[in-house]
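FYI - complex with S-adenosylmethionine, inputs then prediction.
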Amino acid sequence: MDRARIDGFLDHFVDLASGATTIGLLAVADRSGLSRHLGEVGGGTAEDLARGAGLERRYVEEILSGLAAAGVVEYDAGSRRFDLPAEHALFIADESSPYFMGGFFDLLPAILSQVDQVATATRQGGGVPFEAFGEMAIRGIDRSNTPSQTVFLINRWLPAVPGLVPVLEAGGTRVADVGCGSGTAAILMARAFPNTQVAGFDVSTDSVEIARSRASGLSNLEFADLDVSEIPTDPRFRLVTTFDVIHDLPDPLAGMRRIRETLADDGVYLMMEPNTGSKLEDNLDARSAMLYGVSALHCMTQSLAQGGAGLGAAWGRERAEAMAGEAGFGSFQPLESISNKFSAFYLLTR
Ligand SMILES: C[S@@+](CC[C@H](N)C(=O)[O-])C[C@H]1O[C@@H](n2cnc3c(N)ncnc32)[C@H](O)[C@@H]1O
């Protein structure tokens, strides 16, 4: 045994465990309103912050102590003040920021609640169905994707597709968001392009109900709880989008084939998927560790629960390109200008 390796791994393990407990503290700060209050006032003593947010002082003090030790807030021993730097507030207190990470405060507790069931599936096969993760997972997915979609979808992502925006602005055409979840992307497109007909499809009835409840007043938007294999092919769509959906499908290749069939002859398909390589050796970093974790505990297991392939969230660009070819798409182009740390964007033509 190498003593230095034991000590080194001990430090590493403490980092891993404190990451998990810090997300727990942030989830409580998020739900209780402490993060929002900190974002508004910037900082204060535990007493001030508890009073201002209408919370119990002892909880506030302990939570902020943990967040100070974790480097989320700053602590000044002289004044006993806890301060949230403006740059950190973007991640935990400002839901309109594209950096907002509030999705993790719902998604991670939701997926950790199912570890017993995932362990059973690991022993016996099968998976844990999407519905088992409950409302908290739906909210987590929504809060993970809504901030960036709200800031970037209309102004940056769609304009990266050559010639698309003028067509959608002119109208008389149809757009579909497949695996629409709580509906943010479809709603944003329906609002931005009032003369274009927008449809959101998702197999999750609960998600579609949330999407419908948010979409009132938009006459060019409809939602339907349909499996990807049931999406209508007549009339066809000028644009189909999927945001973090293909790797969740029970049969991703069949899903991509179906999407191709729904496209008009001049139609394009914009696919957003996690930004990884297809080989484990290209993904050995903290970001991918998180992605494989979310995949095993949620994306992959819910696909296997549908009797599916369990592709996994880290299927990566090379496999996406190969499957686009197998599904019959005429071209596959990564849109490097809009890809980011978490997500890759691929443009596929019929
Ligand atoms: C990670 S979520 C992404 C949701 C949404 N696109 C967003 O950006 O927030 C994946 C979605 O795919 C949906 N989905 C999974 N399997 C499906 C299937 N067979 N047909 C249609 N939708 C499916 C899930 O219900 C879920 O809402």
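Residues 130, 141-142, 145, 179-181, 185, 202-204, 207, 227-228, 243-245, 248-250 surround S-adenosylmethionine (CB under 6 Å). The longest helix spans residues 3-32.
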